[in-house]
């Protein structure tokens, strides 16, 4: 497990593919060349096609899986030295079309919707660019999984913060169809980018800053909640520097008025400049540092190392899983389990938030935390890595926050009609007794009979957060501020006439004991590591795969199960789930050797032109089924769930390769002499690849256990 906070993922793979149109001379073919580039960042995988007329970008979700309905977007940018050339090329770009999974859409149409076929194994799919003659001129392979890495969420989870002009990832029960999905932030439409069955990605409006309202519409669902859109701008006195020359970089952050917690901004400087404080650094903006207008400004000195230009990128951290952001108590669901080593203990604990979300936290402590099931704690200090693992350094035990709710027996004014269902209930915006706007959630499948302008008395409730409550019963009341009516002279009461009793209504016939009514069946496939799994991993130059195993550490030769080389470091009960993969991850992070010292000394002087990393892990592929049904017990229908599974042996295979002179070569070559291979850097590169794949398998295992636990 990586304790350090990493920059947001930005992976760009430039494929060494140049396509020529048939029938062209050499000079004409050069002018009509095409290049395909894959970029992965912030929840998207993007196919970028460079054409003679400009650039075509195809944005797709990065969690694509076999059988998914998916939507993406197509954006064009014309080339040209002046407006006339750009206008001409813009018209030419509309003649191209994009083909994915048998669906062809003109580049001029913004949204493309398609479906991946159901199939076993890890699946890739191609994005094909066609010219106005319907000929394929460029093609790029995109990533897809054999089965979803993450289970589809049962409710929508928008972030509480966003960065203006950047991507917003919203996880939830989507259908993969962008045509029926809309997002507004501060009343401004957000640009749609991609959608899968598990999330949708948008571009946050660039001209909205501060605490505002997010409105998500997906099919018939509507979600409304607060969001803070943070705007970041960068400026510098000079954009090109000589060696030793300096200039001043100014960072301005807006939209911070009223923040209660620190806002983190990651700065990254590339090119010929060195930035004061380091070229990769994190700025923490505390509430007391914010100006009256909600802004924050900081300057950094930039110094040129050589002659040339530079670039600086600022990313606001908008982690959705960080519990500290909401500062809410959480309920302890499991006792602490050490998944680290005896020398470097990391304690795994499952907790549940007030709104019912299960989260995993990892407490860094030399001794076992004094926590038990049913404790309540508040996270004081934590850090979330790019894969959503939350490392907790400090926490405080607190009292049960589910004590009597302060809204109980209070009267509130309804400010909006019910919308939903949202998070298991109907969301209603109301004004509380103190005059502040709050949100209540009324449970039930039927829309509550509440209208805007009414007053209601809350019978009972449960606090979900600082401004939201789950309501259990309410009564419609008169306006408590209204003046009493003027009394009038009562009219004589007429003598009541006796009404005959209605005929008795037959009670419904009870069900027959043991009868069943089948409901919904959900089937998921999980490929996981167990303690019996064996790992074979090789990092080798050129085509030297035959001798590569001799140079790898013994634990990676695939001859022993995980439980043998981990020993006591393997948590008890690390069977089918994420614990085994997590234990191997911890083993790698503690500095486990990948390439032996002898092998590195032999490789150091070889004329290496490419390097390959290959991973083989024996796994179990589990097909898990959860069937819900109703059964007649004591004359009443009661809901039940039934879990079943079947498993088979499988092999998880992945590989990665870099070539001299190509993208990524700097990761395996000497820094000062990039033409020379560096075995130490190659080992680090291979280790990162291994960790990335292990994290995927750990996620598979965690999702399998979650699926099984939820089928009760």
Topology (elements, then pairings):
Blueprint lengths: L9 E10 L6 H6 L2 E8 L2 E8 L2 E8 L7 E10 L4 H11 L3 E4 L2 E4 L4 E5 L8 E7 L5 E8 L17 E3 L3 E5 L9 E5 L2 E2 L1 E5 L3 E5 L6 E9 L2 E16 L3 E2 L4 E9 L8 E9 L1 E3 L4 E6 L10 E9 L3 E9 L6 H4 L2 E4 L4 E2 L7 E8 L4 E7 L11 E9 L5 E8 L13 E4 L4 E4 L2 E7 L5 E7 L11 E4 L2 E5 L2 E4 L2 E4 L38 E13 L5 E8 L3 H4 L8 E5 H5 L12 H11 L7 H7 L6 E24 L2 E24 L19 H32 L2
Parallel strand pairs: 11-18, 29-31, 35-38
Antiparallel strand pairs: 1-2, 2-3, 3-4, 4-5, 5-8, 6-7, 6-9, 9-10, 12-16, 13-14, 13-17, 15-16, 17-18, 18-20, 19-25, 20-24, 21-23, 21-25, 22-24, 26-28, 26-30, 27-28, 28-29, 30-31, 32-34, 32-36, 33-34, 34-35, 36-39, 37-38, 40-43, 41-42, 41-43, 43-44
Helix pairs in contact: 6-8
Could you list some keywords that capture this structure?
11% helix, 5 domains, Immunoglobulin-like, 8-stranded mixed beta sheet, OB fold (Dihydrolipoamide Acetyltransferase, E2P), mainly beta, 44 strands, globular, 712 residues
């Amino acid at each position: 497990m990586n304790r350090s906070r990493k920059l947001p993922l930005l992976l760009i793979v430039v494929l060494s593919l140049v396509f020529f149109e048939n029938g062209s001379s050499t000079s004409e073919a050069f002018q009509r060349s095409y290049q395909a580039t894959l970029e992965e960042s912030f929840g998207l995988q993007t196919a970028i096609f460079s054409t003679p007329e400009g650039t075509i970008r195809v944005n797709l979700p990065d969690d694509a899986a076999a059988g998914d309905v998916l939507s993406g977007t197509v954006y064009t940018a014309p080339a040209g030295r002046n407006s006339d050339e750009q206008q001409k090329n813009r018209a030419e770009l509309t003649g191209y079309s994009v083909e994915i999974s048998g669906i062809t859409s003109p580049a001029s149409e913004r949204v493309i919707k398609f479906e991946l076929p159901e199939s076993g194994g890890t699946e890739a799919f191609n994005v094909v660019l066609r010219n106005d003659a319907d000929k394929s001129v460029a093609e790029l392979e995109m990533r897809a999984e054999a089965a979803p890495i993450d289970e589809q969420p049962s409710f929508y989870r928008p972030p509480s913060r966003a960065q203006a002009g950047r991507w917003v990832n919203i996880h939830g029960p989507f259908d993969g169809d962008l045509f029926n999905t809309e997002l507004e932030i501060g009343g401004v439409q957000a640009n749609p980018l991609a959608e899968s069955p598990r999330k949708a990605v948008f571009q946050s409006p660039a001209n909205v800053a501060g605490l505002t309202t997010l409105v998500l519409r997906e099919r018939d669902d509507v979600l409304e909640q607060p969001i803070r859109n943070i705007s970041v701008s960068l400026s510098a006195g000079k954009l090109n520097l000589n060696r030793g020359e300096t200039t001043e970089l100014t960072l301005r952050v807006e939209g911070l008025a009223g923040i209660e917690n620190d806002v983190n901004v990651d700065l990254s400087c590339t090119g010929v400049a060195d930035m004061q404080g380091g070229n990769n650094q994190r700025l923490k903006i505390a509430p007391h540092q914010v100006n009256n207008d909600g802004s924050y400004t900081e300057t950094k000195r930039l110094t040129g190392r050589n002659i040339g230009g530079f670039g600086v990128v600022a990313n606001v951290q908008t982690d959705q899983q960080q519990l500290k952001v909401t500062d809410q108590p959480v309920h302890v669901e499991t006792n602490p389990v050490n998944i680290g080593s005896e020398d470097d203990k990391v304690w795994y604990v499952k907790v549940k938030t007030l709104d019912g979300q299960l989260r995993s936290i990892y407490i860094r402590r030399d001794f076992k935390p004094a926590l038990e099931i049913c404790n309540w704690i508040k996270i004081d200090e934590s850090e979330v890595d790019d894969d959503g693992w939350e490392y907790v350094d400090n926490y405080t035990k607190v009292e049960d926050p589910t004590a009597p709710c302060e809204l109980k027996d209070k009267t509130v004014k309804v400010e909006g009609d019910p919308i939903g269902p949202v998070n298991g209930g109907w969301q209603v915006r109301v004004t509380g007794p103190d005059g502040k706007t709050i949100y209540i959630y009324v449970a039930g499948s039927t829309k509550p009979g509440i209208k805007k302008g009414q007053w209601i008395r809350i019978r009972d409730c449960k606090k979900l957060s600082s401004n939201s409550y789950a309501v259990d019963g309410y009564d419609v009341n008169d306006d408590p501020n209204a003046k009493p009516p003027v009394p009038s002279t009562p009219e004589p009461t007429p003598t009541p006439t006796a009404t005959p009793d209605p005929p008795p209504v037959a009670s419904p016939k009870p069900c027959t004991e043991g009868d069943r009514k089948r409901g919904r069946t959900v089937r998921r496939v999980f490929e996981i590591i167990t303690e019996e799994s064996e790992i074979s991993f090789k990092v080798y130059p050129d085509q030297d795969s035959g001798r590569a195993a001799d140079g790898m550490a013994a634990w990676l030769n695939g001859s022993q199960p995980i439980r043998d080389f981990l020993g006591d470091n393997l948590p008890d009960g690390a069977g089918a789930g994420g614990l085994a993969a997590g234990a191997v991850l911890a083993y790698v992070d503690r500095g486990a050797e990948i390439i032996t010292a002898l092998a590195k000394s032999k490789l150091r002087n070889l004329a290496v032109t490419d390097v390959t990393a290959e991973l083989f892990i024996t796994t179990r592929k589990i097909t898990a089924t959860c069937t819900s049904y109703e059964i007649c017990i004591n004359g009443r229908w009661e809901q039940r769930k039934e879990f079943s599974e079947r498993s088979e042996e499988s092999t998880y295979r992945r590989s990665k390769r870099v070539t001299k002179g190509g993208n990524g070569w700097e990761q395996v070559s000497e820094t000062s002499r990039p033409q020379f291979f560096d075995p130490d850097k190659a080992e680090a590169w291979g280790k990162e690849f291994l960790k990335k794949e292990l994290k995927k398998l750990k996620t598979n295992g965690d999702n399998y256990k979650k699926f099984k636990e939820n089928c009760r």
